[in-house]
């Protein structure tokens, strides 16, 4: 195997790709680079204070980036029919891992949520890793909905529901809602009858309402969202400090590395609220440029979806767009007070190995769809070798 295929920057085959695939690839690298630059600034004070090493979080994130980029390039060079064919096994495996986090003694609890499993010194979050495979498997099921037996439909709807229930019980309402919306939008794009989708949406809304009713901290988040200044030193502290950071940026920002709110005022400034640091340091102009990047990425994803001739490929493109662009907009909405506070990370920006690897895998899937939607014949490496031998 050509080792250069595992290193995206030095991939020699890029010149043969469709222009949409090449542009999505470079937008992914730009997004990743900006995210690492912002993470360095946002995490340095906390890392230096907690670990005596200001680069602690950046070093760990770089390890995840390397792993994610290898996975990115493997997917970019893997025919989608193969990836779709094994997605079901990964969904079932990761579903088991999600439920293992709920077993006392196995799951790691952080800030009251048990979302991680420890693989030696490395914490793994199965609910992040399952996202790309949920997109693949839901595209596979909904893309051939009328052609599969009713028993298979019911089985996979039950598996999807079990995934959402497992994530909700960790508890992780925000990721549950994101995965549920992704599945719902993929089903909508596949042409599933709106009456069935309406019932599903109502059931999901009722489940979310029940969760908020039973979980006191979720109710308090909703109340603090409605008026964060009423208890600015209590439940509204995160949002009020985030709004102060965003407002302090002004038109041009305070300058890179010069955020004041990251100096132990803004909580978890290197993860959930990293956009607040970005807004403070780069100002309104920087925020508009970031939104322009998201718009460009989303527009290309939609173009790829419309251009794809295979319905499953179209649904994969739509699902990846929802997970990357949609999740980014949700995170930005939280940081700016437009949405209630959640624990959704900002893809490519927020600290977290599982989130980073999952985001790069999702981007790799979109680039692969863009390659295959160009109309060119798609062959695996082995198929190419066989064809060369025949030509000789």
Structure in words:
With 392 residues, the protein is mainly alpha-helical. Helices cover 67% and strands 4% of the residues. The chain has helices at 19-51, 56-76, 80-100, 126-143, 150-168, 173-189, 194-214, 216-226, 237-248, 274-307, 311-335, 353-372, 381-391, and strands spanning 107-110, 113-119, 122-124. It has a three-stranded antiparallel beta sheet with strand order 1-2-3, with helices on one face. A hairpin with a 2-residue loop joins strand 2 (113-119) and strand 3 (122-124). The longest helix is centred in the C-terminal third of the chain and has 34 residues, at 274-307. The protein is globular, with a radius of gyration of 21 Å. The two termini are 21 Å apart. The mean pLDDT is 89.
List keywords for this structure.
392 residues, 4% strand, three-stranded antiparallel sheet, 13 helices, globular, 67% helix, mainly alpha
Low-confidence stretches: none
Q: Can you write the helix and strand succession as a string?
A: HHHEEEHHHHHHHHHH
Structural class assignment? mainly alpha
Largest sheet: 3 strands, antiparallel
Cα distance spanning the termini: 21 Å
Q: Tell me, rounded to a whole number, the average pLDDT.
A: 89
Task: Please tally the helical runs, counting DSSP H or I stretches of 4 or more residues.
Answer: 13
């Amino acid at each position: 195997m050509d080792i250069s295929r595992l290193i995206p920057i030095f991939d020699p085959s890029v010149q043969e790709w469709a222009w949409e695939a090449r542009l999505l690839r470079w937008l992914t690298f730009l997004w990743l680079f900006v995210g690492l630059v912002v993470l360095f600034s946002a995490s340095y004070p906390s890392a230096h204070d907690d670990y005596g090493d200001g680069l602690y979080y950046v070093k760990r994130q770089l390890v995840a980036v390397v792993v994610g980029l290898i996975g990115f390039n493997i997917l970019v060079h893997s025919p989608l029919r193969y990836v779709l064919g094994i997605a079901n096994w990964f969904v079932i495996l990761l579903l088991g891992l999600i439920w293992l986090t709920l077993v006392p003694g196995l799951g790691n609890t952080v800030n009251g949520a048990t979302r991680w499993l420890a693989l030696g010194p490395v914490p793994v979050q199965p609910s992040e890793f399952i996202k790309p495979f949920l997109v693949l498997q839901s595209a596979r099921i909904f893309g051939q909905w009328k052609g599969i037996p009713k028993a298979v439909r019911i089985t996979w709807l039950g598996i999807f529901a079990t995934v959402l229930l497992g994530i909700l019980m960790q508890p992780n309402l925000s990721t549950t809602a994101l995965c549920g919306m992704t599945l719902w939008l993929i089903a909508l794009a596949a042409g599933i009858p709106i009456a069935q989708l309406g019932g599903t949406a109502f059931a999901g809304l009722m489940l979310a309402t029940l969760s908020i009713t039973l979980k006191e901290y979720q109710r308090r988040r909703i109340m603090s969202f409605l008026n964060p200044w009423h208890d600015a030193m209590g439940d509204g502290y995160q949002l009020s400090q985030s709004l102060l950071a965003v407002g302090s940026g002004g038109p041009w920002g305070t300058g890179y590395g010069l955020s004041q709110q990251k100096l132990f005022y803004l909580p978890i400034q290197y993860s959930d609220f990293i956009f607040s640091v970005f807004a403070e340091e780069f100002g309104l102009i920087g925020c508009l440029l970031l939104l322009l990047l998201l718009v460009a990425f989303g527009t290309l994803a939609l173009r790829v979806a419309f251009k794809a001739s295979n319905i499953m490929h179209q649904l994969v493109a739509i699902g990846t767009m929802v997970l990357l662009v949609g999740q980014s907009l949700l995170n930005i909405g939280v940081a700016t007070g437009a949405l209630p506070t959640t624990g959704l990370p900002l893809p490519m920006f927020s600290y977290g190995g599982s989130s980073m690897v999952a985001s790069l895998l999702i981007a790799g899937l979109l680039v692969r769809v863009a390659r295959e939607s160009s109309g060119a014949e798609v062959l695996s490496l082995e198929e190419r070798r066989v064809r060369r031998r025949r030509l000789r």
